[in-house]
């Protein structure tokens, strides 16, 4: 996703060739996965594939169809998607990020309304049962039988998973779609909640509710991406664009000379079992690239718009004179 965002704004044949090489390694000549994903995690890669602007992604429709069919196998008794078959009574916040943008993008492209409905249900059900009342931040998971929250409220990367699932699903929907305004309300609530926990240095900590906990670059890159996208909503423009800019400034400070973003929390082992290792993570790198490319594009667009308005104003003055 970071690479696809970069290529929207740069004509870089070397990077394009690297992407094509990766696609050839990942998909066969029929456009099917060479190694089919067994878990819903694979949907985020399928979504990244659909975001490539220089590739005719319909040639990979077999892989995209397989991904949708695989997700359907994980729909549980409550009508939402499981994280793992072995843990079918839990609903994880991670799953919102894994599947929801893909479901909307796939559903729109191939006219599968059930796909879009499932995405929105996953988001709204998590908002109903997985959020801390009055504070609007997600817990790691909840138990579907009794709607009992599990793990930590305020796990930084949990905020990130929810954020990217929500904002990318919303962004994919056309303006006139009936779900667009419903998700916009969710975005407004989550943006205001997340900004309250952003640290003065621009980061979100691995436990966002504790100032003493270690800053986490993965949380900062993903929630920063959310803020940058949410800034396109006029009512949120000022506070979200300022939040995204603060996140970028923090990420710049923890970027090594070779371009690698440091200090990302390691992989989570289980509900409530979080890593105490902080280092370089490809997930953070991708969203860091995605964030800065969109930020720069928005700034450039804003300057061009300002210049056009100024030019128009000068022409009006000359005509009046």
TrEMBL record:
SUPFAM superfamilies: Six-hairpin glycosidases. GO terms for molecular function: hydrolase activity. The keyword Chaperone does not apply. Keywords: Hydrolase. This is Glycoside hydrolase family 88 protein.
């Amino acid at each position: 996703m970071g690479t696809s965002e970069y290529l929207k704004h740069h004509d870089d044949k070397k990077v394009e060739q690297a992407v094509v090489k990766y696609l050839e390694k990942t998909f066969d000549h029929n456009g099917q996965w060479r190694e089919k994903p067994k878990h819903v995690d694979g949907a985020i890669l399928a979504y990244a594939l659909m975001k490539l602007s220089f590739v005719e992604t319909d040639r990979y429709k077999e892989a995209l169809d397989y991904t949708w069919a695989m997700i359907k196998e994980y729909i549980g008794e409550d009508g939402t998607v499981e994280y793992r078959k072995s843990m079918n009574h839990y609903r994880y916040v991670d799953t919102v990020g894994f599947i929801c943008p893909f479901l909307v993008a796939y559903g729109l492209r191939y006219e599968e309304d059930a796909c879009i409905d499932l995405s929105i249900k996953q988001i709204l059900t998590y908002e109903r049962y997985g959020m801390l009342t009055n504070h609007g931040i997600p817990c790691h998971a909840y138990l579907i039988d009794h709607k009992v929250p599990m793990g930590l409220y305020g796990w930084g990367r949990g905020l990130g998973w929810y954020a990217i699932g929500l904002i990318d699903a919303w962004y994919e929907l056309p303006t006139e779609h009936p779900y667009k305004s419903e998700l916009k309300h969710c975005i407004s609530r989550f943006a205001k909640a997340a900004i309250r926990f952003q640290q003065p240095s621009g980061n979100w900590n691995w436990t966002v509710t504790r100032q003493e906990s270690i800053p986490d670059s993965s949380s900062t890159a993903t929630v920063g991406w959310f803020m940058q996208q949410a800034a396109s909503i006029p009512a949120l423009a000022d506070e979200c664009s300022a939040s995204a800019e603060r996140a970028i400034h923090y990420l710049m400070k923890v970027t090594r000379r070779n371009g690698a973003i440091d200090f990302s929390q390691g992989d989570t082992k289980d509900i409530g079992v979080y890593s105490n290792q902080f280092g370089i993570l490809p997930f953070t790198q991708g969203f860091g690239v995605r964030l800065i490319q969109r930020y720069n594009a928005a700034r450039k667009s804003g300057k061009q718009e300002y210049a056009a308005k100024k030019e128009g104003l000068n022409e009006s003055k000359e005509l009046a004179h």
